Amino acid sequence: MGVADLLRNYWAEEGTSIDERLDVELRGEKVYADKHLVVTRTEAPDGLVFAGEIDVSNSHAVAESLRKASVDGADVHLDLSGLSFCDISGIRSLVDAAEARQSGRLMLHGLPDLLQTVMTVTGWSELPNLQLCNCGDAR
User: Do the beta carbons of residue 44 and residue 75 sit within 8 Å?
Assistant: First the structure.
């Protein structure tokens, strides 16, 4: 996908700025995209980058992206620093993915403050296969 395609998609879909979309596109292979959310794959470290908003309209796609990204025994790194919103259905997708792991952890990088507070207050941050990383994004 070239810059011209990004510009065309930006004007057709609206939402995030072209600079944000270009930054996300240049990071890796696109796994999922709608007018609110773009998910791309990363290789170093293995994982996914989420940019935009997660809500009930796309939480199923988040769950599917997480399922596809899982590698047996390996940690999966999620860069969530590009999220501007995440409702409870999105949070549950993350928690369910962590709970379903047989081994390896779901490493959450760059959590927005409110999302980190929810994960901590509910006790979900204590799940054995979920790690909240305070290191910023996973890049």
Answer: no
Give the whole-angstrom CA distance, residue 79 versus residue 47. 8
* pLDDT tens, residue by residue, 103-128: 999 999 999 999 999 999 999 999 99
Residue 108 within a domain: yes
Q: Is the whole-model pTM more than 0.90?
A: no
Domain count, the chain: 1
* CATH code for position 124: 3.30.750.24
pLDDT of 5 strictly over 50: no
What is the spatial distance between Cα 61 and Cα 58, in angstroms, rounded to a whole number?
5
Yes or no: say if 97 and 74 are a contact pair by the CB < 8 Å rule.
Answer: no
Residue owning tokens 């006790």: 123
Give the 3-state secondary structure percentages of the chain, helix then strand then coil, rounded to 5.
40, 30, 30
The pLDDT score that the predictor gives to residue 43 is 85
